[in-house]
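Students often ask what a holo structure prediction actually looks like on paper. The answer is less mysterious than it sounds. You provide the chain, you provide the ligand, and the output is a string of discrete structure tokens encoding the 3D arrangement of the protein together with N-carbamoyl-L-aspartate.
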Amino acid sequence: MPNSSLKHILTVEQFSADFISTILNEAAAHQKNVQAKGGSKKLDSFVSTNLFYEPSTRTSSSFAAAMYRLGGQVIGINDVAYSSVAKGETLEDTIRTLEQYSDVIVLRHPDKGAAALAASVSSVPIINAGDGTGEHPTQALLDLYTIMQEQGKIDGLTITMVGDLKHGRTVHSLSKLLNHYKVTLQFVSTEDLSMPEDVCQKLTNPMTRFTDLTSALPTSDVVYMTRIQKERFKDLDEYHAHKDDYVLSENLMRLVKKTGTIMHPLPRLNEIEQEVDNDPRAAYFRQVQYGLYVRMALLAHVLNGGER
Ligand code: NCD
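The corresponding structure tokens follow.
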């Protein structure tokens, strides 16, 4: 195995420059392959489990599609309410069970650190598909791939993250992953939903904080909008007070560079008006597609390219 190889995918902090470039290159190869002939048989006879304790559309279906397009099969537990979790089974025992059937487990869980806990008892690779307000490392890789595709480079860009930076795991992972590049970060949020201090302390790129979206747009090459994470608020009134904090409207798009890229991990609620979707700078549905190729690369990587 090359020295860039990883068993579990838990946090972007594990990723070396070598690993990142391997995954991005492999993703590009999978993109070509899927577009030319639908995929390959690399993971023929491999089985993955999608174990999702929180709702998901894109992450669970792209991991499933990635497995299928590599010739593998998927056990889909996309609602743990219909599994023995509902009877009170622990995460550890659920993992000890599912590892008997599958070669890799893709886990989403509401608790920060759950993926690391799962990895500590698992003999098969665990892929963190979001652990509460912690991280979403595979999303960060697909975000990076998207920026490469849309902007043709990463170094030198000004990347603006907007919205619920406190609870949003995608921005926690992406901002740290960008340590491998020379970028300028702009964080747009209200004071109480700002990027957590423990994340900021790990960032090596210069960052500026804004509370006003209009001031941050003109200098941005990438505008990464995020959803206010309703499920993380103890007090729903507080959520309602925030839900329209930042809305990217057709009108505001006039402030964005002609060469700018608009991203969003999705699901989108009010943060981006539907009218923006027709703008060529709106990249969020292309971002969805790129997720497939990056997840094909990740699955093939943790499964050693299909070599037993
Ligand atoms: C994100 C998540 O689950 O963290 N969705 C995703 O995986 N694309 C973002 C969100 O839920 O707001």
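The first helix runs from residue 17 to 37.
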